[in-house]
């Protein structure tokens, strides 16, 4: 459903605004966590590991007089595989086509590092309205935050600079206010009931991968991807609706497969249980989830597999 300008005005009583917003930053700065907070729903995978987000994920925030479509992008890093190249290309590709950029950095930094400078250079090329969000302010002194603000404002004329703490929920709502003030008049591109354009299949795959990221040893997670083999809606013996889902976790080598499965299958059971619990909350329906683990060596450099992570 797309509202025209008149319908939007009648609904909100004011000029209705809409637009696309890219959230960009280095790996693990808190981009996905912020988007999930702003949307109020789980739309992006979160784990305390770099490169958790692999694709551009759209998340929709419907406000009284605006619709903001966030595009969460993979973290900027030095790519070492074809997948890494695709992730960085996706992040920078989004910058060219949005209305507003949200550039997130960490308050704990003491200088503009190579990764942040690379992002700044892309922002300068794009010449887009950009909001600088400084995350993790709860970990440093206010004087240090002031120094970082001064350092970055010398680099680019940001339309706003917002110090936040995602974990402490400090100033997060202000980000929405600033974005809305910098959008132009426009229609609602998505139904007001929607909060993401991801399919059920994509949500399932991302949820399973997130649980694996959180539970597995450091050497395993970034060599895995998840594919849903079957997803079918049916009825239980008590005539209740249920999703029957079969999915496969792919990894790089046999030693990783053993770690993912765990002793007596305990790790795989744990991943499945946590994923099922999250999915039932998100989908509002009972879920029967079955997981398998298979080895697919060097898939990170396999063109046919890597292309599934390219920007659509």
Quick description:
This protein is an alpha/beta fold and 312 residues long. It is built from ten helices and ten strands.
What are the salient characteristics of this protein?
GMP Synthetase, Chain A, domain 3, seven-stranded mixed beta sheet, Rossmann fold, globular, 2 domains, three-stranded mixed beta sheet, alpha/beta, 312 residues
Characterize the structure shown.
- It is globular and about 60 Å long.
- The chain has 312 residues and is an alpha/beta fold.
- It folds into two domains: 5-185, P-loop containing nucleotide triphosphate hydrolases (Rossmann fold, 3-Layer(aba) Sandwich); 200-309, K homology (KH) domain (GMP Synthetase, Chain A, domain 3, 2-Layer Sandwich).
- It starts with a helix and ends in a 6-residue tail after the last helix.
- 36% of the residues lie in helices and 24% in strands.
- The strands form two sheets. Strands 1, 2, 3, 4, 5, 6 and 7 form a seven-stranded mixed sheet that branches.
- Helix 4 (114-126) links the parallel strand 4 (100-106) and strand 5 (129-135).
- The longest helix is centred in the last third of the chain and has 18 residues, at 266-283.
């Amino acid at each position: 459903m797309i509202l025209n300008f008149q319908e939007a005005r009648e609904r909100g009583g004011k000029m209705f605004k809409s637009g696309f917003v890219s959230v960009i930053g280095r790996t693990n700065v808190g981009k996905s966590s912020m988007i999930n907070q702003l949307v109020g729903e789980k739309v992006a995978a979160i784990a305390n590991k770099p490169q958790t987000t692999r694709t551009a994920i759209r998340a929709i925030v419907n406000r009284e007089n605006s619709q903001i479509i966030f595009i969460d992008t993979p973290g900027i890093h030095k790519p070492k595989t074809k997948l890494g190249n695709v992730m960085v290309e996706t992040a920078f590709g989004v910058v060219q086509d949005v209305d507003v950029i949200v550039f997130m950095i960490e308050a704990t930094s003491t200088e503009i590092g190579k990764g942040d400078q690379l992002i700044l250079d892309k922002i300068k090329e794009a010449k887009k309205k950009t909001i600088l969000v400084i995350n993790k302010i709860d970990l440093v002194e206010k004087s240090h935050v002031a120094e970082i603000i001064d350092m970055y404002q010398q680099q680019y004329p940001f339309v706003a600079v917002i110090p936040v703490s995602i974990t402490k929920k400090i100033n997060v709502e202000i980000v929405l206010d600033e974005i809305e003030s910098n959008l132009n008049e426009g229609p609602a591109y998505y139904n007001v009931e929607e909060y993401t354009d991801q399919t059920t299949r994509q949500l399932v795959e991302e949820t399973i991968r997130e649980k694996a990221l959180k539970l597995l040893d450091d050497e395993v997670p970034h060599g895995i991807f998840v594919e849903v083999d079957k997803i079918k809606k049916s009825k239980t013996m008590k005539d209740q609706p249920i999703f029957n889902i079969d999915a496969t976790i792919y990894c790089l080598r046999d030693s990783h497969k053993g770690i993912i499965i765990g002793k007596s299958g305990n790790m795989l059971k744990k991943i499945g249980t946590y994923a099922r619990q999250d999915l039932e909350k998100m989908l509002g329906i009972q879920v029967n989830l079955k997981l398998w683990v298979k080895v697919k060596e060097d898939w990170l450099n396999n063109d046919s597999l890597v292309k599934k992570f390219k920007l659509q």
